[in-house]
Amino acid sequence: MTGAVAMTEEEALLFGSIEELSERLWRGEISARELAEAHLRQIERIDGEIHAYLTVVAERALTQADAADRWIARRRQEQGGPVDVRRLDPSERLVGIPWACKDVLCTEGVRTTCGSRMLESFVPPYSATVVTRLDEAGAVMLGKVNMDEFAMGSSNENSAFGPTRNPWDLDRVPGGSSGGSAAAVAAGEAVFSLGSDTGGSVRLPASYCGVVGLKPTYGAVSRYGLVAFASSLDQVGPIARRVRDCAIVFEAVAGPDPMDSTSAPGPVPAVLPTLEHGAGGVRLGLAPEYFGEGLSAPVREAVMGAVARLEREGATTVEVRMPHLEYALPVYYIISPSEASSNLARYDGVRYGLRRPGDDVVAMFSRTRRDGFGDEVKRRIMLGTYALSTGYYEAFYLKAQKVRTLIRRDFEQAFERADVLVTPVSPSVPFRLGERVDDPLQMYLTDIYTLSVNLAGLPAVSVPCGFSPEGLPIGVQIIGPAFAEARVLQVARAVEAAVADQVADRRPAVAVR
Amino acid sequence: MPAITPDEVRHVARLARLELSEEEVARFTRQLGEILQAARRLQELDTEGVDPTFYPLPLRNVFRPDEVRPSLPRERVLQNAPEVEADMFRVPRIIEEA
């Protein structure tokens, strides 16, 4: 592990913030092509060890970078000189900025595998709305990054193409399911990335890799072109090294989409104007249910340390109760597999994806699905099919949806007294590869603090708050009421500033050597 | 009583159109049993009169104008198909000859 180091020019390109890089691009100090090439070099140099990328699209990236350079040149010409970055239209902040796309989002003409053999050679005929929005904003997509198969998992070990490794310790998992997204950003292989979060899949890997991850309110970001896992829980969210970068990307991708009838109507929620307002006067809700048995000492200390620092900045704490939190895990593991078993019925070997021959269609379907899906996906399809089947629907599925209401009410009551809830992201620091693969229930416990947020459809951010004694990153989760992205990001920014002496400028050794 | 039996696992696998090996049947019987046992805890809670939350957003029907709009061209739709014949998806015979 490494402390703060003097940055070389290459490192400045790889670890700069969006605004720093944007400023240099618009001043003409660097070109988008140089910036993209630096990232492609970094991928070439270290991704053999990390395995964040499943597909690198160097040629496409350089074409987008050249277009970004022409965009900037055209605007400079219109203005008759350098463009003042502070006056830049918000829609132009991502011009030339390289990013990595979780392989769960459809990208027209670029293979989209979902980490599955089923879609190993699937090339989507259209792009997800969030991808189109970043394309139109001038961002440069470097490639598609690794994930647990169909976003089911907490460690990235469920990828059919081999696990991603944690850049801070290559023997440990990066968290899942957006492990490639978080690892790539942590290791300077992208400035930001997009992930998807159904039960913690953006926040957990962000915490494990020492970066920032936002799970937006259900409906705040379009799901069109996101390969569906559990449709009432899935949300697309940004991952970046800084809260401010996350906020910029969120504003770029959020907002209603006529192609997604579950996207929330109304304007894009502005989060940047209040981002630097600090923690003064903010009521931080602490629920003892998040700090009970099972929480490891280093995580507890780091989270409470962050709370103490926010208090010194003028925040107050208030105790709230989440009496139904302990039921979030069983509720989630009924509802999400049920929705998944329905969503994954489409993989039948007819219209796209793998096909195994059979004498009749049922044999063809069953063999295709036998060979196309991995162990965890099969387990969840089985669980969901069981929970939805005759005789069990009311006892499991309907009961779980009712308890989901109780969990939602817990949050509503907590937010009557607190502005945000502050909780750990995961009970422990990143675990070792292989440590939990044979015990699904143990693996599911990794997400025990994040699942309830999806059940209630709330926004939450994971932001680094410290390191364990062995140098592994620890994140804190800030949860807010629906559509309070501005508030959770403001508090996350206050955390980031308050712990800067312990966290800022630390980079994984593999990324800088 | 076990939470789920091997025969139930085989039945569910048929419903899900998933061919399982005997090793998988044994493993899933054990693992699904453990998970369902944990889920039984939900029965502790009184949910009388509690409405289910199927969706977190209070959205009702969302409509768009009912008008003809362009969609993907046929060859793009078929480009990922494992087997195509005469501009259509080809599958094993479903309908018996009379």
From TrEMBL, chain A:
Its EC number is 6.3.5.7. The active site is at K102, S177, S201. Residues 34-489 form the Amidase domain. Keywords: ATP-binding, Ligase, Nucleotide-binding, Protein biosynthesis. It comes from the Bacteria. It catalyses: L-glutamyl-tRNA(Gln) + L-glutamine + ATP + H2O = L-glutaminyl-tRNA(Gln) + L-glutamate + ADP + phosphate + H(+). It is an enzyme of class 6 (ligase). InterPro entries: Amidase, Amidase_CS, Amidase_dom, AS_sf, GatA. Belongs to the amidase family. GatA subfamily. Heterotrimer of A, B and C subunits. Allows the formation of correctly charged Gln-tRNA(Gln) through the transamidation of misacylated Glu-tRNA(Gln) in organisms which lack glutaminyl-tRNA synthetase. The reaction takes place in the presence of glutamine and ATP through an activated gamma-phospho-Glu-tRNA(Gln). This is Glutamyl-tRNA(Gln) amidotransferase subunit A. The lineage of its organism: Bacteria, Bacillati, Bacillota, Limnochordia, Limnochordales.
UniProtKB/TrEMBL annotation, chain B:
It is an enzyme of class 6 (ligase). It catalyses: L-glutamyl-tRNA(Gln) + L-glutamine + ATP + H2O = L-glutaminyl-tRNA(Gln) + L-glutamate + ADP + phosphate + H(+); L-aspartyl-tRNA(Asn) + L-glutamine + ATP + H2O = L-asparaginyl-tRNA(Asn) + L-glutamate + ADP + phosphate + 2 H(+). HAMAP family: GatC. Belongs to the GatC family. The keyword Ligase applies. Its EC number is 6.3.5.-. It comes from Geochorda subterranea. It comes from the Bacteria. InterPro entries: Asp/Glu-ADT_sf_sub_c, GatC. Allows the formation of correctly charged Asn-tRNA(Asn) or Gln-tRNA(Gln) through the transamidation of misacylated Asp-tRNA(Asn) or Glu-tRNA(Gln) in organisms which lack either or both of asparaginyl-tRNA or glutaminyl-tRNA synthetases. The reaction takes place in the presence of glutamine and ATP through an activated phospho-Asp-tRNA(Asn) or phospho-Glu-tRNA(Gln). This is Aspartyl/glutamyl-tRNA(Asn/Gln) amidotransferase subunit C. SUPFAM superfamilies: Glu-tRNAGln amidotransferase C subunit. Heterotrimer of A, B and C subunits. Keywords: ATP-binding, Ligase, Nucleotide-binding, Protein biosynthesis.
